[in-house]
Design goal:
There is one protein chain. The strands form two sheets. A five-stranded parallel β-sheet has the order 4-3-5-6-7, with helices on both faces. A two-stranded antiparallel sheet has the order 1-2. It is α/β, with parallel strands linked by helices and about 280 residues long. Strand 6, helix 7 and strand 7 form a beta-alpha-beta unit. It starts with 5 loop residues before the first helix and ends in a 5-residue tail after the last helix. The longest helix has 20 residues. It has one domain: 3-Layer(aba) Sandwich (Rossmann fold).
Length: about 280
Amino acid sequence: MIGTPLTDLGSAQYLGFAGGLYPNGKNSSPSAYEEAGVALGAAVQPVDREGKPSISGKIVMISIGMSNASREFSQFIRLVNADARTNPSLSMIDVARDGAAATQIAVPFGDYWINVDRQLQRCEVSTAQVQVVWLKTALAREPRRFPENARLLQRTLRSIVGILITKFPQLKLVYVSSRTYGGYSESDLSPEPIAYESAFAVKWLIEERINNPSPDRSVPWVSWGPYLWADGLRPRSDGLLWECSDFESDGVHPSAQGALKVGTKLFEFFESDPSARPWFFSRSR
C-alpha cells in the first residue's frame, strides 16, 4: 500500500496518521514557528573562521545524508553557481556520503563525521562558519513496519540534529527532506512503502520542535526542505512525478535527470522560502 502525498493528504489519514507537512493537516507551519525561522534566517550573515561577522567571511551551507542526497545537492550547487542573483558570500559544500544510512550518521564520532571534518578542511572552512544544513537521509534495509519504522527514523533524525547542534556552534537553520519515490527499487534498500513513510518521520520531528519550542535562541530552527515524494507516474497536485528514467538501473539512486529534478526543487524552495531569501540571494537584490 502506498499513500497519497502528504501535501495532498491534508487532514485525511494514512494508517491512522494525519497528512500535511505540519500539524493539523496543514502544509504551512504555525505563524509563531514560521516567524522564528524568518528571524533566524535574517540573522544569517558572512562570518570568519571564528564565527564572527565579517564582510569578507562566508555563509556556509552543507548537505548531510546519503549518496542520493550527495548527487542531488551537487546538482543544486551547480544551479546556484550559475545564477547571478545568489549571494556571493554563500559557500555550499556537499558532505553527504555514499552508503551513509541514518543510523551511521547518528554516531557522533563515527567515520561519517570524520569525513565531514576532512571535507570542510579541504574547502578551508571552519565548523563555526556552517550556518545552514540540508538534511536528507533514510534507514537502510529496515525490517520494521509502519509506524515503528518511521518512529525509529524520527529518533535517529533527532540524534543527528543533536550532533549538528554540538558540532556547528553558529548553526541557525536545518531543512529536512524525506525520500523520493521508491517504487522502482530493485533491492530492499528503502523501497515502497518505506520511502513514502519516511516523510512521517520528518513531519513528527518538526512537530516535536513546534510543540516544544526552546527558549534558547541559539538552538537552530528545524523545518521542512522541499517535500520530494510523488507516486511514480501519478502526478501530485503541483505536477511532480517520478519516471523510471529519473533513476539508475537499481531504481534507488537518481540518474543525472533525477538528481537535476531534485536540485531544481531545492533551488525553487530556497528561492521562495521566507526563512531562506535573506541569505540565499544577494543583499543588494
